[in-house]
Amino acid sequence: MTVFDRGLLGHRCWLELATGERVDLPVDRWTAIPCDGDDVLLDACDGPTLDVGCGPGRLTAALSERGVASLGVDISATAVRLTHARGAAALHRDVFDRLPGEGRWRHILLADGNIGIGGDPLRLLSRMAELVGDGGTVLVELDPPGRGVRQDRVRLGPGSDDTDGAWFTWAWVGVEAIAELAAGTAFRVAWATRRDHRWFACLEKA
Question: 148-160 in b/e burial notation, b at 16+ Cβ within 10 A?
Answer without folding.
Answer: ebeebebbbbeee
